[in-house]
Specification:
mainly alpha, 2 domains, 12 helices, globular
């Protein structure tokens, strides 16, 4: 009697639950930051529903804090809109860069849906998984993105419910929350650090420094993000 190996793929693609599990570090980073955003939003005069709506629709991390400043400071709607778009235009490059790393055979059928969840940290986690040899999977991307999105929205809701005075008794915690998003992304960057990634990181660093010195800090960050993403896309 001949025994047949029914498995045609020795390395099956990761599934939805694997993506959720992989998103746990992002969840742990997002939730407290989103909580502080909910607190800040209610402190700025928004209702709890309005704060949660911003997280549901904008879902842009630091840009939401900027949106609070712009809206409460009386900035014109068009100015606020273009400022937020300029800060987040880098996300347009994340999908192509990720699919380039995934290879030509990777499925793109549902990219229109899971691409919604491509934040900086989700992109970094997914890119790191591919760099470590994991097969690309749209189910994995859905799990990873949904875990991060749920953490951000639920954290905002809890912070808005807690109210504007929730962190006043803990000034050190309040200050630390502002650094957690940058620390989380830095840890993901270090996880994919390799010789092949150095050119893109170098381009991003140079573009950031030049943009900051010539224009402003915000412009420098934007130039660094775009420059690094473009360098990653053209790298062979």
């Amino acid at each position: 009697m001949t025994t047949q190996d029914l498995s045609t793929d020795p390395t099956p693609s990761p599934g939805f639950l694997t993506g959720i599990w992989a998103g746990l570090p992002i969840v742990l980073g997002y939730f407290p930051i989103a909580f502080s955003f909910g607190v800040a939003a209610t402190r700025a005069g928004l209702t709890g529903l309005e704060a949660v709506f911003l997280s549901l629709v904008i879902y842009a991390g630091a840009s939401q804090f900027l949106a609070l400043v712009l809206f409460t400071g009386g900035a014109p709607v068009l100015v606020a809109a273009f400022t937020l778009i300029a800060m987040n235009v880098r996300h347009v490059l994340y999908g192509p860069a990720l699919m380039k790393q995934a290879g030509k055979g990777a499925s793109r059928r549902l990219a229109w849906a899971w691409a919604w969840g491509l934040t900086d940290e989700v992109f970094g986690q997914a890119l790191g998984a591919l760099a470590r040899g994991q097969q690309f999977s749209e189910r994995y991307m859905f799990g990873l993105g949904l875990a991060a999105y749920a953490a951000w929205v639920s954290g905002t809701a809890l912070g808005a419910w807690a109210g504007g005075g929730a962190l006043e008794a803990y000034p050190a915690l309040n200050a630390g929350l502002g650094f957690m998003l940058a620390a989380l992304f830095l840890s993901l960057l270090l996880s994919i650090m390799s010789r092949a990634a150095l050119p893109a990181i170098g381009v991003a660093a140079i573009a950031t420094v030049v943009g900051t010195l010539v224009f402003s800090g915000t412009t420098g960050i934007l130039m660094g993000m775009i420059g690094g993403a473009l360098a990653g896309m053209v790298r062979k």
